[in-house]
UniProtKB/TrEMBL annotation:
Residues passing through the membrane, by range: 55-74, 119-137, 143-165, 186-207, 213-234, 255-274, 294-314, 326-344, 356-377, 389-410, 422-439
Pfam families referenced in this protein's UniProt entry, alphabetically: MFS_1
Region (Disordered): 1-46
Location relative to the cell: Cell membrane
GO molecular function, one term: transmembrane transporter activity
Record-given protein name: Putative transport system permease protein
Originating organism: Streptomyces himastatinicus ATCC 53653
GO CC, alphabetical: plasma membrane
Domain Major facilitator superfamily (MFS) profile: start-end pairs: 55-445
InterPro entries, A to Z: MFS, MFS_dom, MFS_trans_sf, MFS_Transporters
Annotated PANTHER family: MULTIDRUG RESISTANCE PROTEIN MDTH, RESISTANCE PROTEIN MDTM, PUTATIVE-RELATED-RELATED
């Protein structure tokens, strides 16, 4: 819907002076979507967090808490299913796949519900379901009980994640229109908060597992009880400028929005590349060291890089690159990460030296992630139909998740074909590099 008028979601707001109450009066008419970060005066670096609205702070801290609660439990689920429940390996994989499908695949449903009913009720419903799911999982003792709990946990995320992400994106656009800085800076804070939660969560879960898995599950549920209480108290009943859409037809219009679907495909190649942390990277680490132990250190390296470098990288990119160039640069960095391993494989290095290509891959992949993720999320409001930001935000994850599902199967087959050592990594390098051509070339046609 490249010719769609400026979103009604922003129609009640105009840039304001620091002495005026924010988000109360109309925007000047005629603001066009550009698909790129507006050039605005550069605010003082140390004031990014301080200048955020209370709502944005709540949503960013929510992302941190979500991931702390989630990663305190889920990294240890496979071991629990295999040992405590006694599931076969294929069944463990099936259950984990169900969780991913019930979450990623249903994001588009959650986004549609957000557009229809608003942010607050969808977030609160997601928190309630997540609390119930974690508590259920802690006491689940049979296969079907575990499956029910896991599906509930996944669907809970399919509700609150599109709600939070779409509202953060909308608020980031307002931040940019008010002249406070590029929208990607807000979205970078959001990404960094999520990675901080992903780093802290497993540490918390590991400590709780000293007691047992049930304790970890109940602690995860407790985190979401706090999140629920915070949102009941602090989340506005109606967010100014957020328009609820009751009309039908949004999905049909989205499916013919070629520019948005192109963005989804490009973003999907990033997610497919990121998924190689769990598929191709373990194979490389095992080859180099004969053990999976270094994987945990490489995962920690990735999380710490995002926590420590996301904001400086986004600040640098926001001052120099538009959204398309930021995504293109990120995808090319990811391609370079795969190429590093491909170039080193013929040498057959092993031991600590053999881990250097894998570490280079993780660093380049993470740097590419820091450019791609904020830019993709910042671009969605420019491509979304009026009043459909939740639907489009959810669809970005669902369509990309489908690409990962198909692509991961192909990648697994590629790694098992017995090809020359460098070939699978060269193929994986070509995918994000070619995806650059898919990126929309203009903000609005």
């Amino acid at each position: 819907m490249g010719t769609a008028p400026r979103s009604q979601a922003y129609a009640h707001i105009r840039p304001h002076r620091p002495t005026e109450p924010p988000m109360t009066d109309p925007l000047p008419q005629g603001l066009a979507r550009t698909g790129r970060t507006t050039r605005v005066p550069k605010p003082p670096r140390e004031r990014t967090w301080k200048d955020l609205s209370p709502l944005l702070r709540l949503l960013i801290l929510t992302q941190l808490a979500f991931n702390v609660g989630f990663y305190a439990v889920l990294p240890f689920l496979a071991e629990h299913l295999g040992t405590a429940i006694g599931m076969a390996g294929w069944l463990v994989g099936f259950v984990l796949g169900l969780r991913t499908f019930s979450q990623q695949g249903l994001f588009v449903v959650g986004g549609w519900l957000v557009d229809r009913h608003g942010v607050r009720p969808v977030v609160l419903a997601g928190c309630v379901l997540r609390i119930a799911g974690f508590a259920w999982l802690g006491y689940a003792g049979s296969i079907w009980s575990v499956v029910g709990a896991v599906l509930l946990i996944g669907f809970a995320a399919a509700l609150f994640s599109p709600a939070v992400e779409s509202e953060v994106a909308r608020q980031a656009v307002l931040w940019e229109q008010e002249g406070r800085g590029p929208r990607t800076r807000v979205l970078a804070l959001f990404s960094a908060a999520g990675q901080a939660g992903a780093f802290v969560g497993p540490l918390l879960g590991g400590l709780l597992l000293v007691v047992d898995f049930r304790t970890a599950c109940l602690a995860g549920a407790g985190v979401f009880v706090l999140v629920l209480a915070g949102h009941v108290r602090l989340m506005p009943q109606h967010i100014p400028g957020r328009v609820r859409t009751r009309e039908r037809g949004g999905v049909r219009a989205m499916l013919v929005n070629r520019r948005f679907l192109a963005l989804c495909c490009a973003y999907g190649t990033y997610l497919l590349a990121y998924n190689q942390l769990y598929l191709a990277l373990p194979d490389e680490v095992e080859r180099a060291t004969g053990s999976q132990t270094p994987l945990s250190w490489l995962f920690a390296l990735s999380s710490l890089l995002v926590v420590c470098a996301q904001l400086p990288v986004t600040r640098w990119a926001g001052d120099r690159l538009d959204l398309r160039r930021s995504m293109a640069g990120g995808l090319l960095l990811i391609a370079a990460g795969f190429a590093v391993v491909a170039a080193a494989r013929p040498a057959g290095w092993s031991g600590a030296v053999g881990l250097l290509p894998a570490a280079g891959f993780v660093v380049l992949l993470t740097l590419g992630q820091m450019l791609v993720v904020p830019a993709a999320r910042a671009w969605v409001p420019d491509l979304a139909e009026d009043g459909r930001l939740g639907l489009y935000t959810g669809a970005l994850s669902s369509v990309s998740g489908l690409i990962v599902l198909v692509g991961s199967s192909a990648t697994g087959s590629l790694l098992d074909l017995g090809l020359p050592a460098a070939v699978p990594w060269l193929v994986l390098a070509a995918v994000p590099a070619l995806a650059v051509a898919l990126l929309p070339r203009r903000g609005v046609s």
